[in-house]
Amino acid sequence: MSEILDGKALAKKVRKELKIEVERLKEKHIYPTLAVIMVGDDSGSQVYVRNKSRACEKAGIEFEEYLYDADITEQELLETIDVLNKDKNIHGILLQSPVPKHININKAFRRISPEKDVDGFNPINVGNLCIGEDCFISCTPYGIIKLLEEYNIETEGKEAVILGRSNIVGKPMIQCLLNKNCTVTVCHSKTKDIDKVISKADIVISAIGKPKFVKKEMVKPGATVIDVGINRLEDGTIVGDVDYEEVSKVAGYITPVPGGVGPMTIAMLLNNVVKATKDINKQ
Description:
The protein is 42% helix and 16% strand. It is an alpha/beta fold and 283 residues long. Helix 1 packs parallel to helix 10, helix 6 runs parallel beside helix 7 and helix 6 (139-150) packs across helix 10. The protein is globular. The model has no long low-confidence stretch (mean pLDDT 96).
């Protein structure tokens, strides 16, 4: 059986360390603050924002919500971002996705100041990640790297396969693994013989949103399997992209869903807010 990569336990450890750092900053009258913008009433986004709010509260980070109806204009959204960019009391800005179709989300990400871009989606941070400069790293890939490090999983020279090429997970994950000296292959909807590609991997990271897509016979014995997927079945059950019950019989390490990558994503968001606060205040 696999060893479980316990993201929940590691996230708790990270949050505990961050809380100490936040208290240290507050002693200097510096109050780390995250501003979250949400447009529309997407139920999934509402849950994510509530979770982020609770996590901030537990870590002692101030949390401000900017909630807008779905009919807000793109220009009004950009103007809100401009105001938050200029506000010295705001250290991190997060635009919750998805946004309504009439808003160009990439344009909005570009508008967020790179030094407050705690989600790591501004092209300047994406570019700095590619060239190995200090930057904000997208929270889910960052959380995955922290899990690999915590469990001392060897990356150098290893074959890593990423399922999915989204801007949020797949693409930044490529660079994170390259920076850890992995040989990286990306699979997507046009990939041929995907089973064979996956079967060669020492590390498999799935972020495609297909329930139980990764099967036991696809996975190399002893491989590390990271499941980013969160899929709700008709009966209300939440499962990942990986057939956990079967794959856990052959994988060396595996993340559960829930309790794996999800808690680490939020922990790394908090980490980025603290980093932004320290950078802005030259601490």
